[in-house]
Each structure stands twice: as C-alpha cells, then as structure tokens.
User: Fold these one by one.
Assistant:
Number 1:
Amino acid sequence: MLNRFRNRALGPADKAVVLAVGVVLLAAVAFVVVRLLPEECGSGLEAAGDECVGVTATVLEGDPELKGLIRAVADENARAEKGWTDPENGQSRIPYVRVALMMPFTTDATSAMSTEQIARALAGAHAAQLRANAQAGPRYQLLLANDGKDLDQWKPVVDRLTKMADDDRAPLVGVFGMPSSTPDTLAAARALSAHRIPAIGPILTSTTMEAGYLFKTSPSNELFAESLREYLGDHPGNGTGFLVSDRREQDSYSADLRDVFLAHFGKEYGLKQRQASYLGLTGDDEGVPQRFSDAARSICLTRADTVFFAGRDHDLPHLVDRLANEPSCDHGKPTRILKVGIGMDPESTTTDITEQLRQARITLVGAASVDTRSWAGNEELPAGPRTFLKQFDKLRAKLGNDPTHQKPWGNKPLDDGYAVMYYDAFTVLSQATGRAYDDINGGEGNGTGPVLPTHDDVYNTVVNMNILGTRSGASCVNCVRGASGTFGFDDSPDTRKWAVCKPVPVIEYPEPAAGAKTKTARVHRSYEDIFDGACP
C-alpha cells in the first residue's frame, strides 16, 4: 500500500492535505522559536541570552520580587521628566539630569548578587534619589543599567551611557553600582573613564579596582587590613593564624584580599605555612563549591585561633558550619574568623549560624564600610545616618502600600550595608552635580534658562570634595557627610580615588557580653595619617 501511494501522482485532495500539514508544521516551528527567544526587552534594552541588558528610565524585567521597587523608580523618573517638559498647575520648569545605576537586576545560583542584595542596593539608591529630588536644584532620573547577572554584558550598557553623556536636554552626569571586583567591572570602569564619565563604586574593595574616573566610597582591602591590624594590636590571640582563600580565577576581590592578608599578617601569624583554599559559589569554575572540610580539619590540627578569611560573605556560613562540627576541634578555646566586607551579611547571623558560633566559641571579626548594627538605640547619631534612616523608613512605608512590593530585602535590610553604601554613592554624584549647577548658574541661572553641568563638571567637583587640614584640625567644607560617615576625595596619587577619612569600624559577632566588651575603643579612618589621626 505504501509503495503504491509513493508511485501515485498527487491529486488535488492530496495536495491540500500536504499543504495543510506544512502550514501546521511551520506554525509549530515558529511557536517553538518564539518561545525560545527572549521576550521583547523594551526601549534602551537588548536581548543577551535570557536577559535584557542595556539602560532604561522606565521599567525593566528583573527578578519578580523587585517589581515594586523598579516601578517606584520608574514613576519617580517620569515625575522628574514631567517637571521639565510639562509641569503642573503653572509651576516653574525644573531641569533634570541622569545618573545610572549599573548592576544586575536578575539572579541565579551563582550570580554576582542575590535578589536580596539587589533589592537593598536599589532601595538605598532610590532613597537617595527621592531625597535629592526634594531639594533645590536639578532633579535626577535614576537610570537602571543592567549589565547582566555575571556583570559580563557591560559593553552595550557603556555604549548607551556614553551617548547619553552628550544629551544637552538631560545629560548623564555619572554612573554608580558595579558591585563586584572582577575583570569585567574593571574593564567597564576603564571604558567609562575613556569617555571621562565619573563612576562611583559603592562596595568595590579590591586594590586592583583603579581607573582614571573611578571613585570608591568603600575602603580598599588594604585599608580594611589596617583597621584589623589595630584590632589585633589590642587582641593578638595566641599568634597562630590560618589563611582560608577562594581560589576562583576571576574573583579579583578574593585574590587581592589573600595577597593583602599575606602582606600584613603573613609573617606574624605564619600564614604562608598554614593555609587552605576552596572554590567559591559565585562564578562558573568547574568543581563542587563551598567545600571546607580540609580547611576545618587543618585549622583544628594547627590549633590556630585566628583565621583570616579571604572569600565572599555568602561562603562564610559554610566554613562556620564545618568548623563548628569538626570533631578534632577543641571548642573549649575561642577562635576568631577575621573578614572584611561592607557590613555584617544577614546570612552570617541567622539563628542557626548564631547558635553554632556561640556553641563552638567562634567570633566573626569584620572590618566594615559601615556598622549599622551600632545604630540601634543610639540617640546621638550624626546627621548623615539620621537623614538616611528617615528617608529609608519613608520609602519602606510608601512601598508598603504597593501590592506588587514583596519586601525582597529581608528582615535585616540594613545589616549588610548595601542600602547605606548605594545611598552614599548616589549622594556623592548628586552633591557634586548640585554644587556644579550652582557655580555655573551663579545661583540664579541666565537669560536663556539654567545651564546643566556636564559629566566633566561633576568629575572636577568630586576630585575637590576633600578634607582640609586647618590650624585647628581637619575640616569638612566640601566633603560628604554620608550615612556611612564623613569622608572626602582628592586627586592625589597616594589615595588613588579611595575615600579619605572614611570610618572603618570593626564589628564582632556574636557581640560579647556587656561586661566583656573587646572592641577597639576608636574607629580607624582611611588615610588618617595625612591628618595626624584628626579626621573630622
């Protein structure tokens, strides 16, 4: 029967059947192709794998939990534009500029930021935007610049940003974000510098993160180590140390921190002959990540009481777990794990981890960019943190009425310091923009309307937001009184655009009992030797 069908010429009915089958097959193929392609990304964005990367002042597709926050930023951006193009009720037109937040807005198991970290960073940036837009001077659009979950899609982002810098109507005056010290981050910063666009790294700490127009509001690993040295000067331990480091090749942060620990503490604590490595979670290196069994056994075998951890915060709980459950350890004697970071990551202070730390007599000792845990109950907070808390609480209340907002930042939204540091980074750019705007317009504008500062004007202002030495001590005239403390910048080759006089607190967790406080009495300040330790 089959052969007869093959040999028979197709009649009209057969042709109709074949044509119908062909149409169905084509439709099915088209459906599959469409399903495999990314959804329409929207203006200013383009598809890169399963992500939409690029720059937008409106809504972009991020993790679903971020929907409410992203919508709130888009609404404020629209308000800023409307205040210039179509002000309401006969109000005067208010010009606006653009500031770009460059970071991921989507996540997976090994991405550069978690959803919670993205939410906290975005909330801090948006709080700063709202504060700046409530003040005199130009308003600010907060552009969302998605460079991919692994930070490797920065080229299309930078291409779009450089074009915006030349927009006279609403110029791009600066970029901030870039949440991880990686080769891609450094390449992006250098590309922005080639176009003279100032960039602020809120949480970059690797000493390798240096580009001509890149400023850092967080201390470097080197500055963190100096703060830890002061702590260890008061609490040296038994002198036996152990170094645990992440061996991922693309993590400039961990590699740099390992080198800094060896340079500062290697000889004194014997780190070269007592060390172990592990594979961190972030990145695509081959192998099972977060294996700390060998490191835990070695720490216990050598009876080291001071462990230097050169890795990411999200890996630390796994080291604590292995160390607390290692049978060969003498948990009757205390152990310190020294780390550096932006704050105290909530993953390291969960109920389970805290119980493990207490039972095994392990204390986390972290040099930090900001210690928000110390703010609780402090009625004498400086103006910087007070203003931040007021604005952040106002934002939380506003979002609480938004049914799409899922409170993705967790129940400890300030502990890791992300919200604070992203707030301060935006504040640096808005403060510099406002000052340049006033200078250019003489406080009154000109006959043709206000002249907006350019990215060059903003850069030239930031490099002069410095701490001044006077006869009566250091003074803050043009510097930043931020939520994370008072600090400034200069163009000195000695400071390399790291924040000057930035507080570098040391946090102990779990906190010792009230009668057994061991914290260093004073807080170290970055480059304080320039001012003989008298930072404002």
Number 2:
Amino acid sequence: MQLRVPTPPEPPAKGGGGRAERRRSARPSGRQRAEGAARRLLALLAPLAPYARRLAPYARRLKPVYPRPGRTGWRRWVPSWRQWLGGFLTSVGLLGAFLVTAYAMTDIPSNLNTYATQQDNVYFWSDGTPMARTGWVQRQAMPLKDIPQDVRWAVLAAENETFYSDPGVSMRGITRALWQTVGEGYTAGGSTITQQYVKNVYLNQNQTVTRKFTEAMIALKLDNKMSKDQILEGYLNTSWFGRGTYGIQRAAQAYYGKDVGKLNVSEAAMLASLLKGAGLYDPTLGKANHQRAVERWKWILDRMVKIHKLTPQERATYTTFPEPLKSNPLYNTGEQSDYLVELASQYAKKSGHLTDQQFDLGGYQIYTTFDRKREKDLTGAVTKARKQARQDHPGQAKDAHYGAASVAADGRILAVYGGPDHRTQGYNESNAATVPAGTAFLPFVYAAGLEHGVHKTRGGPATPVTPESVYDGDDNIPVMTPEGPYWDRSGKRILTRNDGHRSYGKITLRQALAGSVNTPFMQLGMDAGLDKVRQTAEDAGLLSETIGPQVPALSLGNSTPSAIRMASGYATFAADGSHTEPYSVRRITRNGSPVPLNTPRPTRAVSTEVAQEVTEALTDSFHAVHPTTAATHPGAAGKAGTTEDDTAAWYAGTADAVSTAVVVYRMDLTKSLEPLPLQGLAGTSADSVPYRLWTAAMGLD
C-alpha cells in the first residue's frame, strides 16, 4: 500500500500576510523568554561568583552525605557538628523570615467583636439607687482614671506584673502553651494582658494553635499602636468576671454592691482572682471554690508586696477574706419596672437624640425621675385593689384596668402604674388614651372661662367672668348660643344634664366646680368658645390628639387623656398656671460622660390668678366630699370624674406640689377597645376605688 504524503504549504510571499500575523512572528517564543530571563539573572549574580566559589567547599562539607565516608558502624549515619549547625541556622533563618512575614501580613481588625462592645443600659431611681438594667450582657465601661490604682495593680499582680515593660507577648508563655498543646493535647494559658485583650475584643475563645498565633501577632502590633493605659482600660472593661458580668465595674457591683471606685485592695484582689476562672474561684459556689479563692486572694496580695505596690504593713491589715454578696444584686426588669423602663427609654432616645441602634449598643446610665417610695405605695395599693375586685366582682374584675400616675409641678413623673405584668400586657395603662375623662375635665373648662371671658354676642367683645359668676344649674335645660338653642346635625336640640338628673338652681361657677354640677360648664364652654376650651386643655398638658370633638359634650369630658396627661394638667394648676411637659429622665451619661439632654422648660398655660382660682375650687370640692382627710391635709385639692355611660371612674388632684390622676375602667382587649360598663367595680361615690388609690399614691391614707 502506498501512503499519500500531503504537500507542505507554500511559504508566504515576501511582504504578504496580515498585520496580526506579522506581530505574532515578531513576538518571542516562550523558550526565548525563558532564556532571556536566565541571562539577566546570571548577569545580576555575576558579581557574587567569587564569593560563591570561596564558600563552595564549606557548603559541600555541610551537605549531608550518607553514609558518611571515613566512619564506621553507627557513626556513619550521625551528622557532623557542621551539619547540625547548618541545619539549626537554616531553621532559625526560616523561622525568622516566617515570623517577619506573618507580622507584616497581620492587620489589626478594624471592627471589634459586637459582643465585646455591647453593654447594658442601667436605670436609676430618683435617689440614685439602681432600678433596672436592660441588654444581653452586664457590662459598663469605665475610664481608667476612674479605676483606682490599687485595683489596677491587683489585676496586674494576678495576671501580668510585667505589663508595662513587656512587648505585648510572652514568648515563655507562648512556648509553654504550644508545648502543652502539641505534646499533651490541650491548650494552656501564658497570655499577657495585651493578648487577653486581643482575644476578648478581636478574636474568639477557641483554644487552637492558629488562634493563639494570630493573637500573638495582633498583640505585638497593638502594643506598638496603643498606649499601655489604653490596653489596660480595654482589658478591664471587657474581661469576664462571672455572675453574668463583663468588666471591673459590673464585677464590683455584682460581688460587693458598690462601684469600682469604692473597692479596697482586699476586695480588688478577690475580683482579680476571678480572672483565672470565675467558675473555679467564685467563693459562693461551694467549699472547694471558697478554698481556692482564699488561697489565690492571699497570693495576689503577697504578689503586690513583692512588686512594691503594697507595703508589708498594709498587707498585714488584710487578714480576713472579703466575703462577696451571696448573689448578684444587679436589678433585672420585671413586672412593674418594665413599664418604668419603657417610659424612660422612649424619653431618653427622643430627648437625647439617640437612634435605636445607638441605644441598643448600651453603656448608658439613665437617671430617672421615678420616686421609689411613691412607686411602691402606688403599686401596692393597686395590687390590693385588684385582689379585692376579684373577690367582690369576679365577673367584672377579669376585664378591669387601673391607670395611675403622679407628676410633680415641675413636670417630673414620680410614679406610674402601668399594669399587672408587662410580659402579659404590653401596653402601659398609665399612658393609654382610651377612656373619656368625664367630669374630671371640668377644671379646664372653668380655667378657659376665667382666662378668656365669655361672648354673649357673636363677634362681640369678651365679657369677664369670675368664680362668683352665676349660671343655671338645673338639669335638662337647653345649651344656648348667641343666636339661640344649639342644634346638632341631626336636628336635635342639645340639653344639659347633671348626674342623677338633679337640679341645683342658680349657682356660682366656683360652687358648680366644687359640687361637680355639669350644666353650668356645658354652657360656660359654649360662652367662652369650645376652641378656647380646647386651647386651654392643650396648654395645660393634654395632647391634641386626645381632645374630643368640638361639640358641647367637649365640656363634659369627651376627651380621652391618659393618666399621665391628666396628672400633668392638674399639676399645671398646682404650679400657678405654669406648665412643664412631663418627663421621666433627668440625666443621661454614657460610660460616665454626660449625654446632652433636652429637658423641658416651663411655659405659661393660664395666669397665676386663674390657676389659683381653680385650685381653690378643687380644694372646696375635696373638703366637701372628704372632710376627715381634709382636716389633716388642708392643702389637698381634687375631684372625682364620672362618665354618663359609667365606663370610667377618675380621681385627680394635687397636694404638696404633686398631682396624681387615677382611672379605673373595663375593657376586653381580646375583642375591642370599647370601654365596658363598670357595674360597681369602681365602688361608690362616697368611697370610690380611684379615690382610695389616689390617697395611697399621695401619702394621705
């Protein structure tokens, strides 16, 4: 068989081929590029050739040749001292190069661990004692300047006495830890405080060789970047001390119920022992723990003497172990305090211009206006009333609600009752605008008439009225306008009405307010102008969105203020007509530094004379209905509030520059927000439940 050999292609003609083909032919091949690089490298190394020739004999000697010539037996397989030295130097060089490279390539993370930076927010009563805390962790950062020197050195003596002189890592400790990890199968300590701080805020708690190495590299860089004091401050504020606490400030409070600035050396040494492991050294967790804690406490105090941070004479005074508290005294929110925290946190964010994200990072100390004793008295009284209602009116009691609030004349919210348990009823009854004010609204109508006068003709000048101005107090008389009777949109003439359809004849406005006679105030509201009534109520503290429709019923309390706002409105009269918006936070700090807070300023709602006239009428009302209590508390003033359909019962009044408002109502929250008839739940007019709660809150019982 004959094979057909293909004819080779003709070479391209001179000057033929495309531009791309010419570029490809001009481009050097891979082999040509390699040869060029080799030539350039040889040119660079050419000056070193004489030295290489001189070192070659020594290098050949270091090269292991096995079996070694000139040796017999087992010696043929043992490297010479030159080979050992060469291997050692090579290893050291490679290790040094590796460490330098690792150091250069290691960066300090730009973001701290979220868990390491998150703190809790702490709320305080008006007297400065802790009330509650919120947040996932118990941590409060403290500036180093606020941590006593003795406390710092107790920690340094326990953990890293050479802290201020070491480079941020302990080679001896790292070597020991690596040996135990590799040789014995577990990791060990040996970290400096800088390394521990790095672990707390940048890394995780995994006990691995990789994490340990990364920790050391970051610690070296951090030690060059930050001052020792900055590192120590960070360490003291992020370390775990047990009992759910992070940081020395929280530890001091959890174990000794005091701030870190008030710790003595002995207590500081006990807290420092916890850094070795709170599960092993918290003395309250068992006898073995107690024994270990005492031994380490002694050792730390002795170490402080050795490093000259405690004199032998001072050490001799600490012979008794400072027993910590049996349990963590830090307060958790729960039940009634949840409502207080809710009010305070909302106000803090709004007035401190803090976003939810900023606030949730924690670290804030919120100093509230809540009076601990008043809150206890109010809560106790409502709890007792609830229990009594379940016995006397079991059917109605399951839907019963009690809202109450005490507000000082300068706007401070002193106490509230928000509900039985925030975990089962999230909304705050003291801040809920759900039921009408009823006749508790009459003082605002009275103030509007006294402040603005009345108009007998449409568009005519205002005619002043006084507490002695006389109105018709009869029941079922028509409400009048300058043009005649008032007709509603359905064409029905509106008539006034009194409780029990009782008629009083001609009566002064002061007498009408003292006796809670409705009909004069329905007419007074029309004469003064319902817009003036609305304006006066809002200026006194009621929110515009809770003011009822601008119809004659406005004067009889179709508005739905909360207990806080009703108390605030009555507080305006106690403050001689000067209104200050109610507030629940008087001061905020974050880690000891003040946070700017917009504190409300007083504004003029009604004149001093009008406010005093209203207070005097309310005093008459209180004396007439409760003469026994009035005899011992002549400065008390207040009145009851009822609604025509018996869906709400109020009592609001003032004493000693404090105003309290209480409302009792029924509402089935599973069905609707429509109020239900009280059916006797609020007691009788002579001895009402709101009044009993009011006297307890005011300290008059």
Number 3:
Amino acid sequence: MAGGAADILSHEPSLPPPALDDDVREAEERGWTPAKIGLWAVISLLGGLAWIMLALVRGETVNAIWFVFASVCTYFIAYRFYSKVIERYLLKPNDRRATPAEYKADGKDFVRTDRNVLFGHHFAAIAGAGPLVGPVIAAQMGYLPGTIWIVVGVVLAGAVQDYLVMFFSMRRGGRSLGQMAREELGVIGGTAALVATLLIMIIIVAILALVVVNALGESPWGVFSVGMTIPIALFMGVYLRFIRPGKVMEVSLIGFVLLMAAIIGGGFVADTEWGAAFFHLDRVTIAWGIIVYGFIAAVLPVWLLLAPRDYLSTFMKIGVIVMLAVAIVVVRPEITVPAFSEFAGKENGPVFSGALFPFLFVTIACGALSGFHALISSGTTPKLIEKERQTRFIGYGGMLMESFVAIMALVAAISIDRGIYFAMNAPAALTGGTVETAAQWVNSLGLANVSLTPDVLAQTAKDVGESTIVSRSGGAPTLAVGLAHIMQQFIGGPAMMAFWYHFAIMFEALFILTAVDAGTRVARFMLQDSIGNFVPKFKEASWRPGAWLCTAVMVAAWGAVLLMGVTDPLGGINTLFPLFGIANQLLAAIALAVCLAIAAKKGTFKFLWIPAVPLAFAAVVTITASFHKIFLPVPAVGYFANNAAFAKALAEGKTSFGTAKTVAAMEAVVRNTMIQGVLSVVFVVLSIVVILTALVATVKSLRAGGGTDHEDPAKPSRVFAPAGLVPTPAERELMAEWNALPAGKRLQQAGHH
C-alpha cells in the first residue's frame, strides 16, 4: 500500500474499515468488460472525429457541435486515465489516513463536507469571470488557438495544478500556498511568494470588478436585476441560518425563482420613466458602488452573503452551461469565424494588443490554467475534504468543469456576427461610440466576409433591450449576446432575446460579485497573516478592528486599480486584461514551482515531469509576455513605450494624442501606463525568485534522494466516504456496513455546509 507512514495505520477493531482494501479497489478499476471497452472506444472515436473537424476539415463554416464533442470526450479520457496516473504514481492517497476535516474538526473552518456539496462549493469559488471573459476576448485570434489551449491546457496544466495544490495543502493541515512556500522554499522564496500573491490578488479582484462595471454601465435593466441579487442572497442566508437550517436544495430553488423574477422585473422597471432614470448609472458611479459593496460583503458573516451566493452560483453556472451545451447540439449553429483570424499574426488587434504567442495564453487564463485557483485549493477546500481520494474528483474534476464553461463562452462569442463582435469589444476611442462610426470603423478593418451596417448594430441593441451595444468591452456583454442568439433559437424565438441577454448578464455578474467579495475576504486573511508576523494580534480572525482595517486596505488597493481602468482612455479592459492574465499565470507558475519542490522532497523523481511540464510552459509564456509588456518598443503592446509616446506628446504641447482627446486623458494614460509597467516588473521579478528557489530546492532533493517532509503526522481515520461522484459496488457494500452501526459508534455524518 502506498502512503509512507500511513502504511502502518490501523483502524479501530470495533469499526468497519475506513477504506476499501487495495486489492478490491484495484480489481474494480481494472475490471474491463466488453461494454466498458466499447464505451471508451466510442468516446475516443467521437473525440478524435470532432478534433479532425475543428482542426483539419476547414470549410467556410464549422458546426458548433464539434466544440462540445471534442471538449467533453477529451475531458472524460483525461479524467479517467491521466488523473489516475497522477493519483497512482505521484500523490498516492491513503483513505486510512484522516484528513484535516476529521482530525482538526472545529465546526467552523474544518468541517467534513459531503463530496458532491464540496465539489459545488469549490467550483463556485474558482469559477469567477475568467472562463467567461478570457475566451471571448481571445476570439479575436480565431477559434482554433483558444480551443486547443482551453482543452489541452486544462488537461496538462490547470487541472494538474488544482489537484496537486489541494492534495499537498490537505496533507499539511490545510495550509495556504504562502505558508507552504515558506516551508518548502525558505525565507527568500517564501517571502517573494507571499508578496506576489498579495499584489496579484489586488489586480485579479480589480479586473473582475471592471468586467461587472462594463456589463452594467448605462444599463438600467442590468443594474436593477444584479442589484436585486444582493437582498435575495441576504434573504437566503437568513433562511438557511434561522428559518430552515440545512435545507440547501429548498433555498436554492427559492433563490432561483426570485432571480427569475428579478430579471423579468428588471425589464418592466427599465421601461418606466422613473426606472430608466434611477437605474441608468455611468460606469464611475457603478465602480464606487462595487467598492462599497466589496467592503461590506467582506466583513459580513460568511453565512449571510457569501455562502448563499455560492449555492446560487453553483446551480446557476452548471445549469446554464449544460443548457447552453444542449442548445448548441439541438440548434447546431454554424460558426463563420476563421480558425486563425487576420489578427493571429499581428500585434495591434483592436480587442487586445499582442501576438498570438504569448498573449493568447495569458488572455485565456481561467479555463486553462489559473493561479487564482491555487489560493482556493489551499484555502477553504482542503479543510473540508472527507477522504484523501476525493481530491481527484474535486480538484481535477472541478477544473475540467470550469474548462467546459470556457469552451461554451468561446462558442457563444464566435456564434455572433464578426462585425458585431469587433464593434462591441473595441474601445470607444476606436469605434467612435455611435452605430454609424462603429460600422464605418469595422468595415475599415478589411475583415473577410464582413460588411456591417449601422442598422444591424441598432437592431441588435433593440433585440437585447439595450440602448447601445457599441464598445461594451469586457467580454460579458458579448457572451450575453451570443448566449441570447443561441438560446432564442432553442426556446422562445426572437421575442425572448432581451430576456436571455439580461439573464446572461445577471448570471455572469452573480459569479463575478461572488469572486469580488470572496477575493476580498481571502486577500484580507492574507494581509492579516502577513501583518501578524510583526503584530501577532492581527492573526486573530475574530479581532474585528484588525479585520476591518485589513479589509479597508485591500478594498482601497483594488478599488484604485478599478477606477484607473474605468477612466482609462485606452479602454480599461483592453490594457488591464493582459496584466490580469500575466499576473494570474505568474501565480500559477509560483504554485506549480512549490508543487515541484514538494514532489521532489517526496522522492517521486520519475514523475516530476507531471508538475515540471506545465511549470516550464507557464514560466516561458508569462515571463515572455512580461518582457513584451516591459521592453517592447511598440506603444500598442509595451507599457513603457506607450508611456513615452504620450509623455512626449504632452511635452510637445499637444492637446490630444491617439485615443486620448484631452490633456487630462493624455495625463491619465501616462499615469496608468507607468503604474501598470511598474507592477509588471514587480510581478515578474518576484515570480522568477520563487521559481529559481524552487528549482534549487528540487535539485537539492534530487541529489539527496529526497528532502524534509512537512506533512502533518498521519492519524488513523474513523470514517468512510466514496471517492467519486457515484459510489462503486464495493464502496456501496462498505457504506452499508458503516450505516448499520449504532449512531453512537460512528462520527457524525458529513454535513452539507
């Protein structure tokens, strides 16, 4: 049996075994019947055919169903076979060993949680705006590069990172990524990792908030519907805490009905004179509202707002994405976007600047590889896991689900007219902000088979119940138009376009707001821990002055970046999203570097390639992208080059330059590009320090044949739970033995927390 010290763990004789016998489990896994062989043969052939249709059979159009089949079949194969290789040869979980949720159980942070409920919690926590926004923006390059990176990237990188970080954190009592870095990499590497994660978190939360601002700006319907989600979530929190404790499904259904009412009601309110006036807010006002919301939400008790949002988010996101996938299979929309677009080989695309390599790989962060996930996988989730083998289902499987969200977002974005796509996602400085100037500008791009008219833009806006769709950058509105375009063909027809559009906007904003308040809360904990090294009182999470002060500092930090993006003359999302992507991927490189060092210390040298391959790719891509943003002399790409161009124009006394039409706007560009450039330098330097210290630690372990083990001492488990979504026959038999025990002899059943 694998598991090191846990090999000698023995269970209590009066209790059934806490794990399946290894021989029984392996016999089940290797029991290949003709039906099972036939099933996997069909999955493999269907997946192979879908990839051939996408990558090799290039007609004028490609059917959207091939995206669904190619991704889903690849996910099934990767989960069944590749994640098993990681489990068997690198991690070697042992269910006879108690998890922190069992041996540290406190009813607050460490709580054994049903694996399916925990899957939902983890998925809701990791699946913010990234998989919805990045693929939409990256559609500028064509459909094929993004599709390959989303699917292949998650299999070999994103799901691997989430799985490894979660397992290693669980083995270390639920320690955070920063704490693990300090233990494994020493003072220099650990400090660099801690500072980097704190700064990167600020950028991530700011960009997520910016996406909400761009989606809701000048949209009374959207502002009302999204605003109503806050009292709905508060009601759900009170309902679950005091009125009907533990009734998760019941409160989720009530919440869903109330959300539908908020969307439908938003349409009526927006049509009234008072509603249109009261809820028609500019982007700066909305930004300030989100800043205030972020502070309040982060200091409220977790059960009052954050937890009910998680429930809503999980049901909504998985439900909507599955519904969209079914609609694509039924409707079978034809995609006219080329596999590689006219901008795939250029550095000056209108949606985002930079060449396909490396910028596609940092634009699509979440959905393929996301460092933000490492903070969740070493945050709440490892403190809630019942059994070690469940980490494969929750960590690897949860990330595959997020990747599918990204694929569906990409398909929705490329299903709409290409001219509309560029009119929506380019900044107002390029489109002119009106349907006439936007159509003229799009037609000047020389796109194949694109001839956009002002009437088409005006009619599309009318169909979705908005006053305009021009320069609604940030990805969320484009995804909403694409989803509405597909769903109205599936249910309701053109008359339902406005409903589906605002349903999608609220669906996206619900997730992003969850990420904003959860991200702020995590950032507050990180800051409290950091200050606590000097002022121990700050480490007490229950000390309210410390919690409020650290929350205010973090909200002020990401709020300043948010306001900078909202008022940026270059189009905030266009200049800030590359920084977000780079920062997120650098954080992933840090997480993989820590995992590499831990794996080397375990002595699993033959399988070090599992974390080493994605680490090498992430390091090359992100460091190259950082160097482009820092050193490239092309103003459209390089932050300092852009800064110099605008500073020179100001020095020459010009009153307008490029996309900045006033002196104040020019000064804003100079200020913003300098801040973004300096942040890029800080991020890449810290990340290189962490990666180098991890490589040094790995080499030392290779030479010594292993290293110091920082895992918590193994303790015998006194509970049993299945490893995956559906219990196997042998697991059902063992569960029956446990269920037959008198109530006083077994630990309390896992809760649905």
